[in-house]
Design brief:
This protein has 323 residues and is of the alpha/beta class. The chain has eleven helices and 13 strands. The protein is elongated, with a radius of gyration of 25 Å.
C-alpha cells in the first residue's frame, strides 16, 4: 500500500467513515483507512506520509482537538495535511480547530458540494506545499520534470540551465545556515525576476540546496545567463562581513584541517539546448545539464558554458562567458 495514496480517518465514536468521504476517496484513487485509536493515528503518520488525515470531531470534539494538536506540534508529523469534520452544535468549534492546527474544517451542516470542495482544497494545498521548496517557494523536481517534458513534446527550441553556487558550503560553515538560507533566497529572486523579465515563457525550479534549474526559450538563453551572473556577482559580496568583503576571501579549513583561503562565492551555470541535438526523454537533458554544470565548476569565477555537442559526441564543445 503506497502511503501517499492513503486517506486516514479516525473518530472517537467508532463511527464508520461518512459516505461522502468514502466517495471522495474512491473518486480520487485514495485508499480510505479507518483506524481505531489516537495512538494508531500517531503511529501511522509518524511512519509514513498519508495523503491526508481526517478527524471526525462530532462525537468527541475535545479529544479530536487534542489529537490535532499532537499531530501539528510534533516536528515529524506537522507536515501531514489534516482536516476536521465538525457538527453544528458549537459555533465556536471551527475556530478552535483552526487554532489547534487543522488545515481545513468541514462542517456537516454544509452542502455536499461545499464539503467536497473543502476536502479538495485540503489535498490541493498539500500537493502544492509538497511541490515547492520551503526556503524559495520555487517549484521542485516534479514540476521541473513536467515543464521539461512539455517542452520536449512541443518541439520548441529551449535552453535548460543548471545553476550551482561555488564555495557555498564554506560560506554556510562560517556564517551559519540562517545566512546561508538568505543566499539561497537571493539566488532564487535573481533567477525568478530575470527569467520573468527577460524570457517570456521561462521556468525556474529549485532542485534543493544551492542547485537551481531554469529553462528559457533558446533565443533568450545567453542574455539571461549574462544578466544572472552579473547581478549575482554584484550582490554576492554584500552577503559577507565588511572585513571579508574587503579582503576578498576568508580563512577556512579543509577536510584535513589545513587552513586555506576561501574565495568569494561564484555562480556556475551549465547550459544544454536542443539546437544541435534532439532529445527523446527528459533524462537525457538533465544528465547533460548536470555534466555541463560540473564542467562549469572547474572554471574560475562566475561562468556559464553552453553544450554544443550532438547526441553521441563525448567531448564537450562549449561556448560561454566567465567573469
Amino acid at each position: 500500500m503506497a502511503a501517499e495514496r492513503v486517506l486516514l480517518f479516525f473518530d472517537y465514536g467508532k463511527m464508520d467513515p461518512p459516505a461522502l468521504l468514502a466517495e471522495f476517496a474512491n473518486e480520487r484513487g485514495l485508499i480510505l483507512v479507518a483506524v481505531e485509536t489516537a495512538d494508531e493515528v500517531m503511529l501511522r503518520v509518524g511512519r509514513a506520509f498519508p495523503a491526508c488525515v481526517v478527524l471526525d470531531a462530532r462525537l468527541a470534539p475535545e479529544e479530536a482537538l487534542e489529537l490535532c494538536g499532537r499531530i501539528k506540534t510534533d516536528a515529524f508529523t506537522a507536515i501531514t495535511p489534516l482536516g476536521i469534520i465538525v457538527g453544528g452544535s458549537r459555533p465556536d468549534f471551527p475556530s478552535l480547530a483552526l487554532e489547534a492546527g487543522a488545515d481545513e474544517v468541514v462542517r456537516e451542516t454544509s452542502s455536499d458540494r461545499e464539503q467536497t470542495l473543502r476536502l479538495n482544497l485540503l489535498l490541493s494545498r498539500a500537493a502544492r506545499d509538497m511541490a515547492v521548496h520551503p526556503t524559495t517557494r520555487l517549484p521542485g523536481t516534479n514540476q521541473i520534470e513536467w515543464d521539461l517534458a512539455r517542452r520536449l513534446e512541443s518541439g520548441a527550441r529551449f535552453a535548460m540551465c543548471y545553476a550551482d553556487l561555488d564555495h557555498f558550503k564554506e560560506f554556510n560553515d562560517r556564517y551559519g545556515y540562517n545566512r546561508g538560507d538568505r543566499v539561497i533566497f537571493l539566488v532564487s529572486v535573481i533567477l525568478r525576476d530575470l527569467v520573468r523579465g527577460l524570457a517570456p515563457g521561462g521556468f525556474v525550479g529549485h532542485i534543493g540546496g544551492d542547485d537551481f534549474l531554469f529553462t528559457v526559450p533558446l533565443e533568450h538563453a545567453e542574455s539571461v545567463c549574462d544578466e544572472v551572473i552579473q547581478l549575482f556577482d554584484d550582490l554576492a559580496p554584500y552577503q559577507y562581513s565588511e572585513e571579508d568583503r574587503r579582503a576578498g576571501y576568508f580563512l577556512g579549513k579543509d577536510r584535513r584541517g589545513n587552513v586555506h583561503r576561501v574565495p568569494m562565492m561564484t555562480l556556475s551555470i551549465g547550459v544544454v539546448t536542443n539546437q544541435f541535438q534532439e532529445f527523446t526523454h527528459t533524462g537525457q537533458v538533465s544528465e547533460r545539464a548536470a555534466e555541463m554544470k560540473t564542467y562549469a565548476k572547474t572554471l574560475p569565477g562566475s561562468v556559464y558554458v553552453v553544450d554544443r555537442r550532438r547526441i553521441g559526441e563525448n567531448e564537450p564543445e562549449t561556448e560561454g562567458e566567465t567573469t
